Amino acid sequence: MVQEIEIEFKNLLTKNEFELLMQKYNVTVKDFIGQENYYFDTANFLLKGKQSALRIRKKLDKYILTLKQPYEQGLLETHQELTEDQAYSLLNNEGAIMVDGSVKQAVSTLGINPDELQYLGALKTDRIEITENENILVLDHSFYLNQEDYELEYEVKDPVSGKNKFLEILKQNNIPLRTTKNKIQRFFELKEKKED
Fold it and tell me: How far apart are the C-alpha atoms of 51 and 73, rounded to whole Å?
């Protein structure tokens, strides 16, 4: 079982702020790598109700199934690599049978029947990761449900010094701190709004 703790700070950006950070870190559009996130939940959003999220991420022809759930600090992520056939089967809700493994077990421990999970939609992101000491600065340009947004993520090992550094980056670049939900929350909120 592959598990890790993710501690990150995030801030939505305007297009202009995003482009200024690209200049500051000397990156161009060609440096970004595309990835696709495919989101799952039950029909009545039981995962969301437990502040958890399930996705398949396709990046560089690899498919990784990840369950994110709350942890003391940050999020506990449980990862499982899938074959292309397994990913295709889940994305097409073929029999809605969850692939055996650590993610299925983790979903079950939340009291959710993994076979009730269904594919709900996709979000595409163009991403660049810049390593700063032991932290990773991430610039994301995401597209979902006919909308796009720009985001700065800062993945850290230490939550206290990491938050200070994150706030410093915002201040140095005259970017206001914005309350920012994670991608899957933004995706589901927009999806619910469009379905109302």
Answer: 14
